[in-house]
Amino acid sequence: MANKVARFSDPNLERQVVELVRGINASIPSTEKGQPNGVATLDSNGKVPANQADAVPTTGGAMSGELSIKNVPVYERLEHIPALILGNEDWTPLIYAASAGMPVYSAADRGVLVSGISNWIKVRVRMPVDPESLYFVRAKVKKKSGDGTFFIGAVSLDENYNELSTDLAMSYNYFGASNVSIPAGSVYYAEGIISGYNATTEGNPNKFDPEAKFFDLIIICNYYGTVTPTETVIGWLELYKAPNTAYSGPLTIRGNEGASPNAGQLRIKGVSANTGIELGRTDGVASLSYIDFHTGAAVVDYDSRIIASGGNGVSGGGTLNIECTNLMKNSFSVWHAGNANIAWLTGTISQSGTIPLPSGFTEAECLWGAEWIYAVDPETTLDFGGFRIDWSGRTVTLYRMDGGVWKSDANCRVRYWILGIKKP
After folding, report:
1. CA–CA separation, 1 vs 338, rounded Å?
2. Distance (Å, rounded) from C-alpha 307 to C-alpha 319?
């Protein structure tokens, strides 16, 4: 060790350090170095020689008992995560209870095989409950044989992981699937959400028991089945805590590029509440919000666009613009760029007047209407008990109530509108 001592500017200090190191080396008898109940030595690389260390297995091995990291069991260190994703693998160690035989992993079936009639199993998750968050479960379930129904739900737990049953839901809150019948040989995709607490007088399966702190999953397979053997395969099981806010830069979502014409769909599903989309800033700073559609064979910025702009501080006070060549409703062209398929006129006419047609349109291609607006002498409006418009085609006859009698009045006028639409 003396050769490893750095050089000092003070010779006296260097001599003292060297003597201290020699004293430490001399204090350990040579009979204890590299010997049982002694101390290990170091080789020229500063490592314990192989003949003084236990052999390390290189081909793996088995361990019994509980593995702890800093005195905390591994399964506890894996708790309290916002997601559980189980696929084609053996996740049966997470199952801590089963009513009709413990499930087994089946490589041939690519999932966990649950046999037995009315076999309910509990899966350790211990996910924390945030009553303001939303939790989403999905599962791929195949009925291999037999009959009976399928359930998937939440086991509400208190702070000590004891089960709670403090609402009017069934024994558990089956928010993912409830009494679903799956024909033998068929595949069912279960999904559902749960959020918030029930009151003690409520039984909503999409809410937790009051004051639940954590929850596990419960799955019931082959419920009240009558045919044997009855077997269900759980191909995969996923549980997520949905974020209230997600921050992202430019984001591309790629759909499953399968054979289905709708394989690339993005779905926003509402289960127990309204569903909507909000685009744009909410801090009062003016900006544009738009949706671009790409449907043509050529690469362009967009083929059609819906763009929103402006606003006056009142809900609904902005402008919505649709940019396209042909705007249709139920295959009926409402507007087409480059030709006069649509026309709009407004104006006023007097007693017995006729609403004019837009240029190039027939009466059969138009819709129209009118509202009574004023009399030539405004003072006469003070005596009106009411007014009426009679139609003869596009010609109006105007009446006012006078002494309980409808009277035609040449002084009355109306404001009209007329819309012309040509079908291509």
Report:
1. 93
2. 8
